[in-house]
Task: inverse folding
């Protein structure tokens, strides 16, 4: 199965993988540090709790606990727009590269996940817009559900990609150890 990076020579794939990995790590560190104040009793997992508020009442509780932190939450979500460009590309490329080394049906799975991973960015963007909108106009059941669904599908894609990377990576490692 073709993947989104088939057109790119192998060396360039490795260079891009390093760039995406570095960028993703930098944004992850920045988001973690910047988001610490958002961990409150109503949102013990910070912005993640807000992503999965699911209803107006829960979103209202979280926003109430952030009454003096709304600027921090807004900055967190705006910073996430940079992150949501990098991590899907990183995971998609890693799945694609591992799919190229697969000799069985795992290559098809890797190609499919590589394409599917690219949907994580737009899902994350829609989620962020819904969360930012609630920061601006107040809690909304519809926006909370939209954010929750987008976050849920996004995390399903991310964990599928990570699972493929771990399993296929171990498979490649084992095959190379056997060959050596």
Result:
């Amino acid at each position: 199965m073709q993947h989104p990076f088939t057109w790119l020579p192998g060396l360039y794939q490795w260079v891009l993988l390093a760039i995406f990995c570095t960028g993703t790590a930098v944004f992850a560190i920045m988001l973690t540090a910047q988001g610490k104040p958002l961990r409150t009793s109503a949102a013990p997992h910070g912005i993640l709790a807000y992503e999965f508020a699911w209803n107006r009442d829960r979103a209202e509780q979280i926003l109430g606990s952030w009454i003096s932190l709304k600027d921090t939450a807004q900055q967190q979500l705006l910073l996430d727009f940079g992150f949501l460009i990098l991590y899907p590309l990183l995971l998609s490329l890693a799945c694609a590269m591992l799919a190229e080394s697969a000799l069985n049906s795992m290559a098809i799975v890797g190609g499919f996940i590589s394409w599917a991973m690219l949907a994580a960015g737009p899902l994350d963007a829609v989620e962020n817009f819904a969360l930012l909108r609630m920061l601006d106009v107040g809690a909304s059941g519809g926006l909370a559900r939209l954010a929750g669904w987008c976050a849920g599908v996004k995390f399903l894609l991310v964990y599928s990609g990570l699972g493929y990377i771990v399993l296929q990576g171990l498979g490649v490692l084992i095959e190379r150890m056997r060959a050596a």
